[in-house]
Amino acid sequence: MAVYPQRIADLIDTMADVEPRGKSVSGRSASFECGCFVEIELSFDGNICIDGRLRTNGCGYVIATSQVLISSLRGVDTKALKGFDGDEIIAKIESQIGRLDDRRNCAEICIAALHRAFEAHRADLVAEYAGESALICTCFGVDEAAIIASINENGIPTIDKVSASLMAGRGCGSCRGLVEEIIDTVR
Ligand code: FES
Asked: Whole-prediction pTM value?
């Protein structure tokens, strides 16, 4: 008797421990509930994700979800990720492996690991930046001075208003916390 549905079993078979091409960053996440860890390594050319690799001791749902997400990122510019959160990602996963229902936590661990990898990629780009004002959103090249100017121009500051005017936070999403900190400071 098969342990996992066929679509998930097929994705488990695609897991290979092959080093991603190019310079890479890693993101990790773990679940105290089931004891599994997920490490996802991504390589980039600028903001284009070239490749990815998964390491985990997790179940088939964790492996299948990660494989779906990694393959959906290959060749994609982080600008196109729309914040990389919410039901849209879960819908993408479910369209390939079926409904997650009580396995949603398995997907959330993988998404969290990818968020950490995006944060590490952002930190790499910030370290290389030589502009006068601190670079905040590496997906859209938005610096702190532009965010402060936008907050002052738009009246009541909210992350949605800043994102609407500058796009900051609407790519990989890893700058959103920093944008919120700037808003709190200006407020
Ligand atoms: S750094 Fe990716 S959305 Fe801002």
From this structure: 0.92
